[in-house]
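so my prof wants the structure for this chain in the tokens format not the other one, which i didnt know existed until like an hour ago. anyway here's the sequence
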Amino acid sequence: MNKLDDLLAASRLNELLHKKEVEEKNKNTLLWVLAVIGAVAAVAAIAYAVYRYFTPDYLEDFEDDFDDDFDDDFFDDDDDDEDDDE
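here's what i got, hopefully its the right format
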């Protein structure tokens, strides 16, 4: 009976060790998946930053030109109105 108890205890111990190995393997797989996702996100962020740095901003130049023309026309009209009043 003693040998049978030893055999059952060894079998339970083996099952517990095997469960720990499976859990550790799952944790390791999850860690690798998260590492790959993080690396892809980092590369995408760097690529976007480089793209934004090297792409000229045409809209800003257009708005500056438009504002200058509008201001000139607006102030010219005010000067003409003041001359007509006198």
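also thought this was worth mentioning. The chain is about 95% helix and 0% strand.
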